[in-house]
Amino acid sequence: MNAFYYIESGVKQLIENYTRIAIKKHQLHDVDLLNDMPYVLAVEWDGVLYEFLIKLKENSSKMILLGSGAGAKQEHPQGPPYFQRHSWMDLFDASVIYYNDPTLYLGPLSLGWGQGTKERFYLQEISVLLKEILEKLHIPLPKVTCYGSSGGGFMSLILAGYLKGAKAVVNNPQTCLTKWLKTPVRNVFSLSYPDMSQEEVIQTFHERINVLAFYQKIGYVPPIDYLQNGASEFDMINHLIPFLSGLHALSDECEVHEIKVILNYNKKQGHAALGKQETVDYLSKKK
Hints:
The chain is α/β, with parallel strands linked by helices and 287 residues long.
């Protein structure tokens, strides 16, 4: 074990059963990544703490990157990190990395969409760290799936754009934050972009809050499996339909990969994601 990092156990209720490896960003290249046991890798990068819950499966070349939707305050009132669905890690036929959104450390938020601060887009920095981890593990990006539902789906759509070659599998995601519920969006904007009106945020950080604007900026649309409950009228009207319609407005130079829309219809389920077994089975089919 390398001497430059330290290991601590019992860090907050959420991860008390996991070993914690704490390093600085410049040490990431040399850190030993452990096999067949879950642990938290905490990377400090210029004052921001990026935390990843990792479970590597030695005999699998596949990787699933899981982002979290809303629920941080409700499920873990003691505060971040928040790794939604972490109890599912042993059900997948792939290695998994859950990433915490450091935006949650800015204030009492249930969801941060990776927004970060005016100066730093945390989701972009998460992608940088994940890319280095994947390179260390010799996992090619076409073997990587970015998964999440709702706000975690939004982050997965952006993350797959940064990790060119990876696929996004999203369930009832947001595709434009200003089309989501006003209160949680206002709460994030007030912490990430203080002293800016929503109009100023839209003008200045359009590519951070609108998936299509981000794809236009990078000139690339990743392969996407978009799972949507057609009974969730709000999602359909404000997110899926505008997203599909907006694809036509992308420039001809934009590299667009296959987008599959898989609709189910469940009035009782509404905006809630598919259940555990359905989700695990779907992700297990991905190559």
